[in-house]
Amino acid sequence: MTTALPRPLAEGPSAWIGAEMRRRDDWIYRLSPAEIGEIDAAVAAVRGRSLELAEFGRADFPLPKFGPVLDRLRDEVLNGRGFVLLRGLPVESRPIEQNAAAYWGIGSYLGNARSQNAMGHLLGHVRDLGLATTDPNVRTYQTTERQHFHTDSCDIVGLLCLKTAKRGGLSSITSSMAIYNAMAKTRPDLLQRLFRPFPTDRRGEVPEGKKPYFDIPVYNDYADHLSVIYSRTYINSGQRFADARRLAPEEVEALDYFDDLANDAELRLDMELHPGDMQFLHNHTILHDRTAFEDWSEPERKRHLLRLWLAAPGARPLPPIYAERYGSVAIGDRGGIVCPNTRLHAPLEPV
User: Fold this and answer.
1) Where are the beta strands (DSSP E) in 31-148?
2) Exposure b/e, 312-341, CB count within 10 A at least 16 = b
3) Mean pLDDT over residues 152-162, rounded?
4) Each residue of 158-182: pLDDT tens digit?
5) C-alpha angle 122/123/128, rounded to 5°?
6) How far apart are CA 61 and CA 288, in angstroms?
7) How far is CA 167 from CA 293, 295, 324, in A?
8) Reduced to 3 states, what is the DSSP secondary structure of residue 36?
């Protein structure tokens, strides 16, 4: 390949280095007692109206002083470094209905909830269901396995930690923009390969009229934005389809180098999520991972996080090819997984 790279280096705050972030904590926002009070009052209001999660949005969840803070944090996620950790939401000893309503309401200030699977879950539960990814229709969040660095199919992905594992389960993130810069300096030949479409497995969640896999590049340069969409696990399993394009050795080498950089201790940032922590990430510039974990034997103690996939107002334009995975590229109304017979709902328990 002789095509020049679209830009020499990715610039701006989204091209951060993990080693630098470990020396700072300005990416952590600690909730104040007054902000918690606003959240609790808004939860009480929507529960007093007997509203289900999928029935209320930002207008029903007033946060007079905290709302503008969330608007600022959303801008930081979309246009700044690409991530934020909100700390201090009271979740322990509170019912799942209350915690889910608080999280849903906060999420409504960052975007519109999208379906996270073929079952139409607008609220996801990251919890081990005793499954394994050796089944090609199982997704890693349903297991205790390491997830490996990837992006999700939405503008912003959010996690609320309710309970932690006995051991492991750390969250790791890496800037895909910093990976671009490292590859551009050391192996631009391999970086060029990542602008070519890769067959990527849908893991059995196939929208109507679509193939069981989709083709899309890892790096996409469009409308002056460099965006990444990636799951090595799903690229690998995409090779199970006879009509999927076979990967060339140079492409495998490029993916291996990309993974090596994502895992590099200098580039990545590891964090331990505590109960009440909310992490929000910009999928187009951030990769995320979770280490394998050992869970508690008691069901009531098992590791449990709530997840949101959000289509954000004010998000960047995406190239038309993203519609293969996102369904649409319309800002504020894109992303998620919708298949035949999908019914949108927000379950309060893992399914």
Assistant:
1) 83-87, 112-113, 124-126
2) bbebbebeebbebbbbebeeeebbbbbbee
3) 98
4) 999 999 978 877 899 999 999 999 9
5) 125
6) 29
7) 6, 7, 38
8) helix
